[in-house]
Amino acid sequence: xxxxxxxxxxxxxxxxxxxxxxxxxxxxxxxxxxxxxxxxxxxxxxxxxxxxxxxxxxxxxxxxxxxxxxxxxxxxxxxxxxxxxxxxxxxxxxxxxxxxxxxxxxxxxxxxxxxxxxxxxxxxxxxxxxxxxxxxxxxxxxxxxxxxxxxxxxxxxxxxxxxxxxxxxxxxxxxxxxxxxxxxxxxxxxxxxxxxxxxxxxxxxxxxxxxxxxxxxxxxxxxxx
Length: 225
Prior knowledge:
It contains nine helices and no strands. By secondary structure, it is mainly α. It has a domain at about 100-205: Cytochrome c-like domain (Cytochrome Bc1 Complex, Chain D, domain 2, Orthogonal Bundle), CATH 1.10.760.
């Protein structure tokens, strides 16, 4: 009797596993995980009866009609390799222009820069003659020599970097300090948006009297910052 129970239990488990495997295989045939999102559009030559969004919502109940599953799979294979339709009102392949650094700085919002500065004050003092903290004092930093503020223990990487903290140098550095100066002790991840970096630099330029004039915008207003 015990053996019979174990046999029945084993057959049930095997049957359930086989059913799950079959469903997973069929789902893989219908919706390949390697092409996630590939069905989120309706090409003009798609068969009118197939609403793929509805199929995805109702599957597998929507495949109950005779021959429906085979027809959807055939359509799926037919659509493989076709590009999604461009969104309405947008030109295919159009690339939005990127403002040059001069334009970014000229249009930067000081209030935004002041707000972004709050990310820095836990490590940097901003007052004239103020102390160094985890990072060096940032008063008069724009136009100052890199790694030269008195009394701060810079990393060898920063000491050996050379140059001054000009607008472009700060713009590139603040995008990713660790990538721009490998070996720096600065743990700040950086500001991804060019507009945020420009706003922060514009605010830094107001701290002190040593900042050079802003670079002029280009006539076209385009280019790489």
